[in-house]
Amino acid sequence: MRSKIVAGNWKMNLDFEKADDLLFQIGEELEKNTPQNVEIVICPPALYLELATDFADEIEFKIGAQNISQHTGGAYTGEISAQMISSMDIDYCIIGHSERRKYFNETSEELSQKVANLLEFGVQPIFCVGEQLEDRDANQHFDIVKSQLKEGLFHLSSSEFSNIVVAYEPVWAIGTGRTASPEQAQEMHAFIRTLITENYSLDIANETSILYGGSCNAKNAKELFSQQDVDGGLIGGASLVAKDFIAIANSF
User: Kind and range of the H or E element at 126?
Assistant: First the structure.
């Protein structure tokens, strides 16, 4: 049975003291209201990964990075490799977030290499796909997502793909307060699962967790997560409030 996952993407927020406080608060909320059969993943800025892993040793959650380099090592000042985060016992890494694609012009070729690097060192990629508003208005949203999956993932072997988590994030709903309706989310998630079936197998498709990302919060999570093919969420702003984040994890 595929995993239910709620991952918090802190993005570029919080100083060290506030990050420490938030991790402590998340621990307190988990003690009061522990989600059942839900994997919680916290993805802080890279500077705070070690801090987060220290908390994770005592509290039931996993740690994810927000990005890695497409390079494996060497003279790439400021970059962080898959091997580096693997050596810190990091469980997951977000790849291809829409903000990385937009602001840093990440290409499918680069994302494909990042995925390969993570798999080589035993870190699970959370691979993001999603359309811009103009793509949806032009009824091209399915084509965009299909292309992103084909170019970024579908070259993988079946055993490699079995370690992938997919996150669907309609770009027009990220940080805007707009949310895809539960029906829109389900439609795209079902489409993604069908593509995985066509490229691999029904068994692999049924075992692949597909998360929704895009202004998911404590108020709308329950309805989104009730959809058949929505296996959790990649949470942005709401993950910076411990009570809201754990409420989302308890929305299944």
Answer: strand 124-129
